[in-house]
Design brief:
It holds the Pfam family GED. The chain has 609 residues and is of the alpha/beta class. It has helices spanning 2-17, 47-55, 99-114, 157-169, 190-198, 222-225, 244-248, 253-266, 279-319, 327-350, 357-372, 376-379, 382-393, 403-414, 418-442, 444-447, 450-484, 488-492, 508-511, 514-554, 557-563, 568-574, 579-604, and strands at residues 36-41, 72-78, 85-88, 91-96, 125-131, 137-141, 174-181, 205-210, 237-238. α5 (190-198) links the parallel β7 (174-181) and β8 (205-210).
Length: 609
Amino acid sequence: MENLISLVNRLQRACTALGDHGDESALPTLWDALPSIAVVGGQSSGKSSVLESVVGKDFLPRGSGIVTRRPLVLQLHRIDEGREYAEFGHLPRKKFTDFAAVRKEISDETDRETGRSKQISTVPIYLSIYSPNVVNLTLIDLPGLTKVAVDGQPESIVMDIENMVRSYIEKPNCIILAISPANQDLATSDAIKISREVDPKGERTFGVLTKIDLMDKGTDAVDILEGKAYKLQFPWIGVVNRSQQDINKNVDMIAARRREREYFAQTPEYKHLAHRMGSEHLGKVLSKHLEAVIKSRIPGLQSLINKTIIELESELSRLGKPIATDAGGKLYMIMEICRIFDGIFKEHLDGVRPGGDKIYNVFDNQLPAALKRLQFDKHLAMENVRKLITEADGYQPHLIAPEQGYRRLIETALITIKGPAEAAVDAVHGILKELVHKSISETVELKQYPSLRVEVGNAAVESLDRMKEESKKATLQLVEMENSYLTVDFFRKLPQDVEKGGNPTHSIFDRYNDSYLRRIGSTVLAYVNMVCGSLRNSIPKSIVYCQVREAKRSLLDHFFAELGKKEAKQLGKLLDEDPAIMQRRVSLAKRLELYRAAQAEIDSVAWSK
């Protein structure tokens, strides 16, 4: 079972190394889920002496007033043999074999955080002690509760300490070690008072009675130790610490433990309780209870770890990859993000995502409707036909058929098709721009780099603008081609004037009678409608070829070419991620590392049912 406490110790060390102190609400915390034992007591309750007795070493700072001004997370590791030593979390590679140096380092590290004032700090100090004389155990020594601020301390320090202590002991995974001196009324015990507030049934509180040997003559602590004065779920444990004279004389801790055993065994009032008294018994009881609590929490801990790993991985995935440091890495990263955007854009065009169908709507509805609105029949009304035929003949009336008149009528009709053709080009251009913006907003990777997002958007729109101009040129050329060469077969089938009743001897104005002009208008309308039908099919092909196809093939080609010319500094400006997001990713990655390590640690430990 000792491997369970070792497991939690390893997890706590991992928490320490990766910055999980249980005080960051923005990140999931493993520290708060781990069972621990918090040592609570008023000033001068003998709290430090109890800890030193459990450890078997004199290592804590001493003095008047508030000596413990930061939480001390004390991890005890039992070793089979070898010299005792200590390690601090902030000095991981330094071993302390002189415990007087440990005491000094605790004081120095406290001062580094709080200055040489008498202020307190919630930032813990992490200390591991390796010794054959300890049980595997983790204890958190908290500042002593006080009722009055001393010189140099703010009035709020009384509440500050109480709030700090409460923040630890109110957690359901925390076992409370409540230290009370026997030579004071238990009703006034700071430790019992605050423990009762967070654990009213005493289900996770261990009562420790100190200074039993200093009680007034004729009094004893039997009622308390037997649970009659104040009942807890677990039996009270009495301890006899070293006296100040013993401390001054540097009395060996092992000798002090022996004298403690002798005191309870030889004092008549406590003889019947001697088997469950003393600091050695306290250490064993706490270790055994901690093991039991850990064992009961393991399944829930596993579930929490697995669930949190999924959540952390999901958030890291949303935040995207961290920025590369070298120019090549930055360039590759930018191009990969651009390819993702380009892929999303193509999916819109290919129907995998919505939006591409709007282009077909331009060809199937908008263009035909615009061509229909041209109303060629009005253009070829009697008076307009007469006017254009007459103007085309000039001073020399036509001899057989008014060829120039036909050409002019056809050209003036066909030229109006340019309007709907240009409108179709512009409509498709608008849809492509809309799909670019939509694709940018759907590219999660671009959201973390505002500058790159703007550059990619601008580059894509610039490409579309170039493609639009090419498309407009090609589409209008289709109309001009129809104007530049009329279909010969159409004119060969035209009837001659004589056959239609024309009389060359009549004046030019007589020859252009209404019936004759109507036939010309009807013939031109048929030809224009034939050409319009052909252009209705060829204009979409030109637009797709010049705009849609090119957008799929080379939307960011120009941007990529320019990108290759940029230096690392310029590339870095494109990857201008929000510093808060960068810090969040680092924090999440550390926390994920912690949870994965915890998962591996738990999986490697086998425990009995």
